[in-house]
Every structure is written in structure tokens, then in C-alpha cells.
Design brief:
mainly beta, AOC barrel-like, about 0% helix
Length: about 110
Amino acid sequence: MITIIDDPLTEGPEISSKMVGRAQGLYAMASQEEIGAMMSMNFAFTEGKYNGSTITVVGRNSVNSKVREMPVIGGSGMFRFARGYVEARTHTFDKNTGDAIVEYTCYVLHH
């Protein structure tokens, strides 16, 4: 299964939270033993001082783990030459619809 995403990137998990960009990319289920996805995603910022900049994340997302770590492999604009990692934590998940709210904490070094 491959899923393409173009989701709101917000300051917080609430529906009323300010949108600061889009989380765009794809994930593919890539494990026969557990729910594990291969993620390729850009955080494309559209607001504030990071407007027009991106952070690129590529890595394995072990969905059932409380905290998942994935590498930051680059970026653009203010995040040119970015390196680091993100920690993903599921805030809410609806088993009926498959919709989830995920918190990403980014630790990034850049020029």
C-alpha cells in the first residue's frame, strides 16, 4: 500500500491551530512483521520567517511505537544543508477512518 499525503502542518494538534505549511510526500507499508512504513516527506513552510523553506524527512516509521525517529536528510531556503532528525508521536488515531494527528518534533542543524 502506498499513500500520498498533502496534509496541514500546524503549530498544535487542535483543528483551530494556526497552519504554518503542508506536510507533503508519501509513505509505503514496508514490513511483513509489523505496521512499518517507509516515509518520504517534506515539511513545506508557508508562514513566517520560514515561508518558502522546506525540511526533508526520509526513513522508517514503526507506526505502533510510541516515539519514532526518522532522519532529516536536507532542506531548502532557510533549511539549506539541513541535517538532524524528527521524533514522531501519534496524538490521536481514528481506527474507523484511518485519520491521525501526529506531532513531529524537529531537531535540525542548518546554515
